[in-house]
Design brief:
The structure holds two protein chains of two kinds.
Chain A (H helix, E strand, L loop, with lengths): L5 H33 L2 H5 L13 H8 L3 H34 L6 H13 L4 H10 L5 H7 L4 H12 L4 H8 L4 H12 L1 H17 L2 H6 L7 H13 L12 H32 L6
Helix pairs in contact in A: 1-14, 3-4, 3-14, 4-7, 4-8, 4-11, 4-13, 8-11, 11-14, 13-14
Chain B lengths: L11 H15 L1 H11 L1 H23 L6 E2 L11 E2 L3 H8 L3 H23 L1 H12 L3 H12 L6 H12 L10 H9 L13 H29 L3 H9 L4 H26 L7 H6 L8 H4 L2 H8 L9 H30 L5
Antiparallel strand pairs in B: 1-2
Helix pairs in contact in B: 2-3, 4-5, 4-16, 5-10, 5-15, 6-10, 7-10, 10-12, 12-16, 15-16
The chains are: A mainly alpha, B mainly alpha.
């Protein structure tokens, strides 16, 4: 190791400190949420919970899992799984087809079709027309949400660029052997672009999992996804109620429990998927 | 100017060229059709995506007619209502009472964006610089992965935590942690006060939580740029006795300047696009007083459109929407154009 100059050592110490502090600051709200979810009523009301739980109880979590309000929560969870699974599948199918078609050099009206898609990144009709349009086109049920939020121009362009980078030689050999377009796509392009596909799948899936506003606006109570129900539970917990029930836990605990349960799946898959997520930004420099 | 040659004066190649050119012109339609027939699979694949973009991205543009029409009766077809020209635009922008709210939303959009730019833009850069200083790879990648995490978490979860922390409490429980701290610091009165109904705190909460959410993920692109700088530059500088500050000033910054420029230009292009979701979630419990700092164009549009509850004035909402969409479009296209000029990189 080469000797470091004094300013270099200082900067290194500073860097370690800032990075550690930032990482702690990132994790803190989640740790705090866990502490609030499982702490007893007394310490919460006295404002004693800052980092770790006190008077540990699991009644709030249990109430969410099995209590009388749990049904609504679990229905919304199922809805979210439905939206994420089918929505991502649908989005991927149309995006893959689109990206493949746009990556063909022989495509007739290629420029016009590309422009048709790219233009939607520049100009959107706005919230009110979009809302009226969704209403007109029956985006008011589970399947409506699936088809109404199908594709994003950005993701299609990302995938198209990736497809364009794949060497044409194998493809030509396959065409000579009599493969049709679907076979070329399925047996050459898809296996060769696994990481790009993973990145885009992740983008779509996250969008579906985290979607809030339009889901709340467009579909009925029983079809609301997790995010909508979570928000209304949090809302309810900070409003005062007339009836003071004996719950055995602070209303806060229930809200924090809902938060924890809603992010558990994300936290579990995160370590495996984060590399695809990080890759997304670096391929973000899309060119037409 | 091309000299017109007689057939006999042409070389065989020229004759062939002309022959095929004629042929190409004559059969253009037929050739396109032949192409489509030959590669029918590709065109079949395009149908779903074209249908989707037409129905859900282009069809709504027709709804912008709302801005020019007094569209009070949702039962009637749009064009059967009274055409009002630019009435809605003039009303929201210049009417003595209506204009206040519109321009307030416009100012708030701009202010939030500017604060986001001034305070939010440098943080990922500094963070990337510091990550690059950590030589223990394992430690570095663990801390990096931790800091990207909030981008994975939904806006609802993040705002829920903020709302709970800021809560004044109620008859069943005490105030949230942030509320208690603010009370102790004397920033808010002792009586239960809802922090998110206090206009003076909204911007800080919005910006700081935005930094918490996005700085880690935002640092990725700068980190990649710093890593691409050859270590020999630093070696040479060190031999010359350059301090760390000088190294950053003369090696790191020039090295990441292209990335920095593009990110800045693209960010400026989005200056009038402040999202509505986080704001409506943060202010869901608040009184309307919060509007003086928290209402941006997009939430103003939703509110006028009746999508946040209450009565609706679709023509006003659509007019504000169209006005904003057009300005935003020019900013985005402009910034991309500049970025492409500067660096050959753009979003599209």
């Amino acid at each position: 190791m080469k000797r470091l100059d004094r300013t270099e050592i200082l900067f290194r110490i500073l860097s370690y400190t800032v990075v550690i502090l930032f990482a702690i600051a990132t994790l803190y709200p989640f740790i705090f949420s866990i502490a609030m979810a499982i702490s007893g009523e007394g310490p919460i009301n006295r404002g004693e919970i800052i980092l770790y739980p006190k008077d540990i109880q699991f009644r709030a979590l249990l109430a969410l899992l099995t209590g009388e309000n749990s049904k609504k929560f679990w229905i919304s969870y199922t809805n979210t799984l439905f939206y994420t699974l089918y929505g991502t599948l649908f989005s991927m199918v149309i995006s893959i087809f689109a990206a493949y078609a746009l990556s063909r050099t022989h495509l007739v009206f290629k420029r016009q079709i590309s422009f048709f898609i790219v233009f939607t990144m520049w100009f959107s009709a706005g919230l009110i027309p979009t809302w009226l349009n969704y209403r007109d086109l029956f985006v008011n049920n589970r399947w409506g949400i699936i088809y109404g939020f199908g594709a994003q121009a950005f993701n299609i362009l990302l995938l198209r660029n990736y497809f364009q980078g794949i060497s044409k030689e194998i493809e030509e050999a396959a065409i000579v052997d009599g493969a049709n377009e679907f076979q070329v796509l399925g047996s050459i392009y898809l296996p060769m672009s696994k990481s790009a596909l993973a990145t885009i799948t992740l983008f779509y899936a996250l969008n579906r999992w985290n979607g809030y506003f339009w889901n709340r606006q467009l579909v009925g109570d029983m079809e609301h996804p997790l995010q909508v129900v979570l928000q209304s539970m949090v809302q309810a917990s900070s409003e005062s109620s007339e009836i003071v029930e004996v719950l055995g836990y602070a209303p806060y605990s229930l809200a924090y429990s809902a938060i924890i349960l809603s992010i558990i799946p994300i936290i579990i898959v995160y370590p495996y998927l984060q590399k695809y997520f990080a890759r997304g930004v670096n391929v973000g420099g899309v060119k037409e | 100017m091309m000299k017109i040659l007689r057939k006999t004066e042409m070389t065989p190649e020229q004759r062939a060229q002309e022959y095929f050119l004629d042929d190409l012109e004559r059969t253009r339609g037929r050739r396109i059709w032949a192409q489509i027939k030959k590669h029918w699979g590709v065109y079949l694949m395009l149908i779903p995506v074209l249908a989707f973009f037409f129905l859900f991205r282009y069809r709504p543009i027709y709804g912008l007619m709302n801005a020019f029409i007094d569209y009070r009766f949702l039962q009637k077809p749009l064009l059967d209502n009274d055409f009002t020209g630019f009435y809605a635009f003039l009303k929201i922008m210049f009417d003595a009472t209506e204009k206040l709210r519109f321009w307030q939303a416009f100012r708030n959009t701009f202010t939030l964006s500017m604060y986001g730019l001034i305070f939010g833009f440098p943080v990922p850069i500094i963070l990337a610089l510091m990550f690059s200083e950590i030589k223990n790879e394992k430690f570095r990648s663990v801390t990096q992965i931790i800091t990207y995490l909030p981008k994975f978490i939904s806006t609802v979860v993040i705002t829920s935590i903020i709302v709970l922390l800021a809560s004044p409490g109620n008859n069943m429980q005490g105030p949230g942690l942030m509320n208690a701290l603010f009370t102790r610091a004397g920033w808010i009165p002792d009586a239960p006060t809802h922090i998110l109904s206090q206009p003076k705190f909204f911007r800080s909460i919005y910006i700081i939580s935005g930094i918490w959410e996005g700085a880690g993920y935002g640092s990725i692109v700068y980190f990649a740029a710093i890593m691409a700088i050859s270590p020999t530059n630093y070696e040479a500088a060190r031999i010359d006795g350059a301090s760390k500050a000088a190294q950053i000033r003369y090696i790191t910054f020039p090295g990441m300047a292209p990335t920095l420029t593009i990110m800045l230009i693209l960010r400026v292009g989005e200056i009038l696009s402040v999202g509505y979701e986080k704001i409506i979630l943060l202010t869901a419990n608040s009184t309307t007083a919060i509007r003086s700092t928290a209402e941006v164009i997009s939430t103003y549009v939703l509110s006028l459109g009746g999508l946040l509850g209450g009565s609706s004035q679709l023509n006003f909402a659509a007019a504000a929407d169209l006005f904003n969409s057009l300005i935003a479009m020019f900013l985005v296209i402009g910034s991309n154009f500049i970025s492409r000029r500067v660096s050959d990189t753009s979003l599209f």
